[in-house]
Amino acid sequence: MKTDFKTLKELHEYYAVHNACGLKELATQPVYEITTPSSGILLIGEAPGRNEDLQGRPFVGSAGKFLDELLKSIGFSREEVYVSNVVKYRPPNNREPQEDEKDACRVWLNAELLFVKPRVIVTLGRHALGRFVPDAGITASHGQSFEHPTGIPVFAMYHPAAALYNPNLRDVLKKDFKQLKNFLDNRPKVSKAKQEEIDAILQL
Ligand code: URA
Which residues form the signal peptide (predicted)? Predict the structure, then answer.
């Protein structure tokens, strides 16, 4: 796995060429973020939608607007966090990403984790949760944290797009973001030795 990148842009340009995701040929372009976050919060969605496919940036449509609102409610701007997706290409007609497509983007996401070194991974929706905590169901797990084998905590959230269809989930998401803030406020900083352990596991 290639990891010696100087910038996120370089990393994404490399994996945009070196991946076998079947969605590549169907999408306009890969969708990714290129700015390193200051907060250590890494949020992972499912897959780009139409607006993201056209602009090449994650969460720029209506789900992204609600995500920005949720971040703002706990004192963060979009520029302070890093946002990614389980798959980097838009599935046709916004269908769910398939297992082989998620697998093909696995190394790409691992490389992002190594580069960003997040304090917490916030999974948005069941596809992202399943990538890190395979046995957890979103209904029972949202608003809670899990210890991933790497040592990076994973915090489960509903997908913001789900609240666009089911308005009851708006308040659930707002409450869960408050829980995330509490979690971060009480979580000790990662030591250098612990970070080295995390990096070693991610490189496997
Ligand atoms: N939904 C996602 O899961 N990702 C995006 O980038 C946009 C909407």
Answer: none
